[in-house]
Give the backbone structure.
Amino acid sequence: MEASASASVRLRRFVNSMHELSIAVSIVELAEEESAQRGNAHINAVYLKLGVLAGVVKDALLSSWELACEGSSVAGARLVVEEIPATVYCPVCLGPRSLPSTQWFACSECGNPVSQVLQGRELEVAALEIQE
Amino acid sequence: MSSQPRLVEVRKNVLKQNDLVARELRQRFHEAGVCVVSLVSSPGAGKTALLEKTLALLKPDFRVAALVGDLATENDAARLARAQVPVKQITTGTLCHLEAAMVRDALENWIPDRLDLLFVENVGNLVCPSSYDLGEDLRLVLLSVTEGEDKPLKYPTIFNTADAAIVTKMDLAAAVEFDASLAECNIQRMRPGMPILKVSAKTGDGINVWLNYLAQVRSEKLNKS
């Protein structure tokens, strides 16, 4: 499908991914740091936890990955993204609940407005697959 | 690379470097008794117009200054300097947001000795700034009436991570048939309980409420110290 996308569609995708590209560069920097601390271990894969409320689009991040890695010691490594759903604390149900959507901060059970996010903001390198 | 691949746990925040600098900044601001307010919005929502008015009106009673982020020009800084308060431009080049280190660097050899309020105007963008803590006490998101009531639904993260919302250009509300209650409802959906202020920098409508709100935020901060 990639090959059939018109230039304007591809360009738009790139422009829309500027945010993700800068995030991808930060991931590369973190991975390089970790590799250096382990005797410049070769990195096969980077495992990322990405909360749905982090404001980072998974697909855009994945398509920025190769470009962000270019010329770094992480080049060629896979980026494996685990999406973390939103969990909030509902002050009425007195427990962890989900959201009806990422555009609606309410308890999916009782509908009460919620503001305490327990999970879903993650933007975290969870692990690296390395080879010494 | 003869060995078998193995998995090592890292568990580190991707933006930890920024968060670290932001924490240092917050500590510095806290010690200096400066209340720091950042403004984010889409391009053209009226951040500079609101700040221009705000700086001029606060100047008699408070020591104020502003840092302003812009991709390429110094137009905004020149506009703000008209209020005759210290203003410094941060040109971000191609970067679509401010980062804590840019604020720190801009403050080198610049920050006036004593300051009550420092405003930080981010680059016009509703996506990128949401991930970067700048060490501010208050993050404001601006929404102009010409952008439509559903902006908060399109950019949930920035509205959810802001502390207060300002609806700007209220003088144009009738002309664009702006539905204020729908906009407020959408903002509340993103962040229940968020304070919402409606202003017009042009006519001055709502500006007193806004200035009182700022003074209140500042005194709450000082009382916490």
The domain at 2-85+118-131 of chain A is CATH 3.30.2320.50 (hypothetical protein PF0899 fold). The interface with chain B takes residues 18-19, 22-23, 26-27, 29-30, 34, 38, 42, 44, 47-48, 53-56, 102-106, 113-115, 123-132 of chain A (CB under 8 Å). The longest helix of chain A spans residues 18-37.
